[in-house]
């Protein structure tokens, strides 16, 4: 599977959030503000993970359908990846 620019940009945004969190720690910012930013970064990672898994699932399902093969195992694997990520 190829990772597209949308996926890479999402990860770059998370990277920016993490750098900002480190800066906040170095500046001894308030714990409440830090928690808000950490939560935002976690949510961004969760959304990115969902985009990657869904794009991969779509790609794999299309390949399986072209081969005339069953897709049930692929779908279950994608669900398992999402559940484990929680």
How are the elements arranged and paired?
Elements: H1 5-26, H2 31-67, H3 72-84
Helix pairs in contact: 1-2, 2-3
Explain what the structure shows.
With 86 residues, the protein is mostly helical. It starts with a helix and ends with a helix. Helix 2 (31-67) runs antiparallel to helix 3 (72-84). Helix content is 84%, strand content 0%. The longest helix is centred in the middle third of the chain and has 37 residues, at 31-67.
Features:
single chain; 86 residues; mainly alpha; 3 helices; 84% helix; 0% strand
Produce a short descriptive summary:
It is built from 3 helices and no strands. It has 86 residues and is mainly alpha-helical.
Q: Which spans of ≥5 residues are poorly predicted at pLDDT below 50? A: none
State Rg. 17 Å
Structural class: mainly alpha
- Residues in helices, as a percent range: over 70%
- The count of β-strands is 0
Characterize the biggest β-sheet: none
Estimate what percentage of residues fall within beta strands.
under 5%
| Multimerization status | single chain
The CA-CA distance between the termini, in Å, is 23 Å
Shape: elongated
Count helical runs: 3
Question: What does the average pLDDT come to?
Answer: 91
Return the string of H and E elements: HHH
């Amino acid at each position: 599977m190829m990772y597209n620019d949308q996926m890479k940009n999402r990860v770059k945004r998370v990277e920016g959030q993490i750098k900002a969190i480190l800066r906040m720690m170095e500046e001894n910012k308030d714990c409440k503000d830090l928690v808000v930013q950490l939560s935002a970064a976690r949510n961004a990672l969760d959304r990115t993970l969902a985009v990657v898994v869904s794009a991969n699932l779509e790609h794999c399902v299309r390949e399986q359908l072209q081969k005339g093969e069953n897709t049930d195992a692929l779908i279950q694997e994608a669900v398992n990846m999402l559940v484990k990520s929680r």
